[in-house]
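Case study 2.
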Amino acid sequence: MRFQNTLFARTSLTIAGALLIFILFTGFVVLNYVLLPVGRQSAGDLAALMVLSAKTWVELPPSARQGYQRELLKDHDLILRATPPETGLRPLVLHTPYMLFLEEALSSRLGSPVHVHRQNGRSDLRWVLLPVGDTTLYVGVHHDHIGAEPPRAAIIILLGASLFILLTTLLVVRRITRPLEALSRGVQRLGSGGHHRPLPEKGPMELANLARKFNQLSNEIHQLLDNRTTLLGGISHDLRTPLSRLRLAVELLRGKEDAKLLGNMRHDMEEMDTLITRTLELAKMMRGDEIALENVDLAALLNTLKVRYAQQGRMLDVERDAVCVLFVNRLILHRILSNLLDNAFHYTAGQGVALRLRHLRGRVEICVLDRGAGIPPDQAEKVFQPFYRLDQSRNRGTGGSGLGLAIVRQLAELQGWKVSLRNRADGGLAACVEIFDAQP
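Prediction:
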């Protein structure tokens, strides 16, 4: 999940950044080469209309001026008067670009600075004082009449572009990352030894080719695993046939040869048979998809192990927290704990062994605690390798077959669990399994 979230976020940010830069550049071009020129032209036209209207008013006889003012208000929404408004005027402090263009156009036409004023109590009116001859006329215009608003247009463009960027980014990134997410899940399943479903070979050409190659690789790996299991099974079967004949020969020689020699031969055959059984067991347990998960009461499972070892005359203490039920593979967990317990009893020199169940943050830990000699720190990982034994004499009576801990590590990794060995402060070894609940 972390891979998926990181990939989605990075791809989204990359595409969004590129689109945002493009939109900002486009907005800059539109603002400078379309909106601002249009606004400047509109302000120039309004300034020309104001100056022309003021000059026309001055030239008209007094009897015709009121009618002319009404026509201006009706046709052009301009207020023209010779006296200031009753509520008074004050200079406009904050100028929009259009008002700046209007002041610039009026000043250019009249040859003297002209400023836009605001009427007290009327936020919708803008006034300019036009000196025409010996008269100063007051020309007012409603703010809504201006129409052209480059800043608002630019903001609307940017907001619309941002929404477009967001939707486009989500669609494009989702289309790109969906096959990669499926590939990531497939790699995780393949790496854990689980059953792999073929990835859909669709999407962009590069991703479709990648999915096709991955499916081929996955099929080849599973074929190799199946061949390995078949090979080990055949070897085990072929070796057991001569072992059976050797057992029969030993029984037929009983009483005719040296009893000690026959006992050694029988012991060697049992050791070979155990080694074959463990090897075949390791190969079969690699196929983690053959056994289903289920809700397991860990406390009950530990008590079952305690009863079983008690029947063998081995004392096993169980230390546990409250009742704990996890959705896990019962058979694999039972096999892991059994192998760890067998190993602990083998090296504990007749002393007691304990099973400890603890709830940790986000996981459960089951530890097998013994009072043996412990393990050298540099050997803590090597003992998980197949056929590796601390006792290099190859004596099964002191070193075992070398497959018990290898089986434990392989089975734990298939389930996504963690197995570790550490020496205890007060002597002995702690073999711990960290279990993560696999919710159905």
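Residues 94 and 296 are 74 Å apart (CA to CA).
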